[in-house]
Amino acid sequence: MSNRNGIKYYLKWLFCFLSTGLIKNSASLFLIIGFLLPGRVNFSKSLLVGSNQYFKTIKSALSAANNGDTILVYTGVYNEHSLLVNKAVKIIGIERPILTGENKYEIMKIKSNNVLVRGFLFKDTGLNFIYDNAAIKLDSVKYCTIEENKFTNNFFGIYLSRSSNCVVINNELEAFHTKETYSGNGIHLWQCREMIIKNNKIKGHRDGIYFEFVKKSEIESNISYSNLRYGLHFMFSDSCRYFHNYFTKNGAGVAVMFTKNVDMSNNIFEYNWGGAAYGLLLKDISDSKIVRNQFIKNTCAIYFEGCNRVTTLENNFLENGSAIRLMANSMDNLFTRNNFIGNSFDVNTNSTRSYNTFESNYWSEYKGYDLNKDGIGDIPFRPVKLFSFIIEQNRPALILMRSLFVDILNVAENIFPSLTPKTLIDSKPKMTKYL
Amino acid sequence: MNIILKIIRYQIHDISRSKWLVFYTLFFFLITYGLTSFSNDQSKVILSLLNVSLIIIPLVSIIFGTVYLYNNKDFIVLILSQPIKRSVLYLGLYLGLVIPLSFSFVIGTLVPLIILGNKIPVQFTLLIFLFAAGLSQTIIFVSISFLIATWNENRILGLGLSIFTWLVFSVLYDGLLLLIINVFQSYPLEKALIGFSIFNPVDLARIIVILKLDVAALMGYTGAVFQKFFNTNLGIIISIMCLIGWTVVPLIIGKRKFSKKDF
Amino acid sequence: MITIDNLNKWFGAFEVLKGISAEIQKGSITYLVGPNASGKTTLIKSILGLVKPTRGTIILDGEKLNGNFSYRKKIGYMPQTASFPENLTVEEIINMIKDFRETSTTYDEELIDKFSLHKEFKKRLKNLSGGTRQKVNACIAFLFNPEIMILDEPTAGLDPVSSSILKDKILSEHKNGKTIIFTSHFLSELEELAEQVIFLLEGQIRFNGTKDKLINSTDKHNLERAIASIMIEG
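Predict the joint structure of the above. Result:
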């Protein structure tokens, strides 16, 4: 998979260099040879920035640079804010120079395609609610790369809008806000296409990663933790994938809303614990997949509201408050081959009818038997307890949890089902858990 | 005071050889052993143990206490014909029953946890909660059982009343709570619910522990209100006062009845 | 001396003792007799403080009984049925009662020897026969050399040999100046021990005096017939 991505990535670059290079340079032959042997032959010039270098400021280097140049910035603190990058340059920090916004300003704004920023520490943008101060802001650009930078104490970290085909990779972002309203998002994408967000570590922002109106993009192998609101906030972003990410201890977990064709796989959702926290909150999601994720110790592992044709396959639900809360307006969802182990409630629902399918899951609560030894329980499992149904209507009733009275109610309802949805059963409960 | 200690001593001698107490200890031993060997998560083990304890301990304490007083009536007469004050005998009998029952619960639970201790990490706070809950139930329900047995000469009536009392605290009370919660759904019920739950020693022990473990976050606002209450000094003091009240009030009334009673 | 004055006891709606007045002299041996439910045991229990009288007073050696308990160290009581904590041994029971009494006097263990109870000492009470329990019961009553002995049906359940051992013991204690009160059913071999007789019927005293006086007053030649004739007179 990653191999194919790598090739795609390389082709994108090649395409971009060829298109810009051929038009602007007369020595097109050399250029073509140059691009066929990337990294070995460098036709563009390098501009050095540092206290002992020709350029003392990045701003002066930027104004002297041409498209295709490389600006090498030596270590030091650069109190330069509002840097405008409107040329296709590579800006590379050596031994992590520091760019500061002095708690007032935005640090860098990229308005050109094909920009690369690598190896800096961006800090202290300060709050600005009108301009949404960001450490790096990219607007209406293509083929830009932000890699191996660190970000600390910024309002927004990396802010991308109306852009496409950019890569944000191997960055670390950290913020120290305590109030949601005074903090911005770590990696923020708005109206973008075909982006790759990979291997970043985001902590302490409002939302770790924010997607709004983003298409065909990938979020891969990021760690988003201890953010004030969501680890990942994902809206109106059709045909995106996120996989191998780790979301933990976020104020409200992960929210995915108003989206079609989203593929969520191999992620870990852990310790999203609190009154309004969800491992994964799904609202108006359709035709999507949730595959091989781990949901561990969340207040509510997955919350389904207005979801249709979502397949939940081969996930582990371990010791969550509720594993699945399925609201009445969700239909035609399929839950199969999942492990439900040690959850306080396996399935909660607020409806007496259910048009969803549960099949061949493993339920640690299942107390049936398997006489014909085919590994499938002989009697169906009813994952909705009467009590879980009651609390869905009336939360304060939760104080009765683990009361003998509640156990008796559950047993009675199990024998003579009257309130819980009759169709919400797993008719082929697996006897042993899936490995 | 001296006499009380002597009564307690001989009674412990007697009860500790009772096969029922051996069963009782064995019961906790097997439950704990079984749960611990099947689970790797001690908080789950303790939660299950707590569940079992909150059903079994009140039931056994109240029945054992009632039956004990009835079965030893002749012996009580023999002791009362000695120069011993009645209230001293009553307290002696009470403590002489509470101590072996408590001990049996603690030993039955602790030994398997120690045997299998290196398998899973011990969570001391939870363990202390479990023991506090179990011991408070023992102390309270033996006290209530003594009151019932002293009040009623009729054994069948007394035993029936004991089982009914257990049923009220363990089951019916919660049924009533659920009814109230449903009827007054649209009102802010949190404070009233705290009041109600404090008034039932079984609920009180249960709620304090589930708030520590799994429910608080699920409950949202109600959970927050409960958590806030039980985390303040006032809340802790009120809870402890209630548990003490449930022990002391039946004990005092029972002792008074016992002192005036004809044998 | 025990002075009983106008003693009245109600159990619910049932009047068990109907104004009992009597005096039991120090050093006397009194036979408390009456049919079932005549109030014998209630009277005894009132003296022991086990039953609280509805009305009336009992004064024991000048001390009015009023929920106090220390006077009971003067009394040895042998209840009708003996029941002990089942899992204690004979020895533990005896030690226990010794412990409770806290008396510094030497113990009267004559009965323990005569009943050969030592060989039962390590047995638990629940493994003993009714007769052996009754022996334990008797031993405890005599153990502390009490001034007053109250014996409720003392020979019930004892074999003839043990019964006569007990009778001898009662007689010898009487000779030592003890006050003795005992109850028994009518056809008891114990009646020969009696000097004073209190005959209770339906909660009232029908006769109170010496055995000789009772027999003479009714022209009968034994106690049983004398009492029967009182009952017939109504």
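The domain at 44-226 of chain A is CATH 2.160.20.10 (Pectate Lyase C-like).
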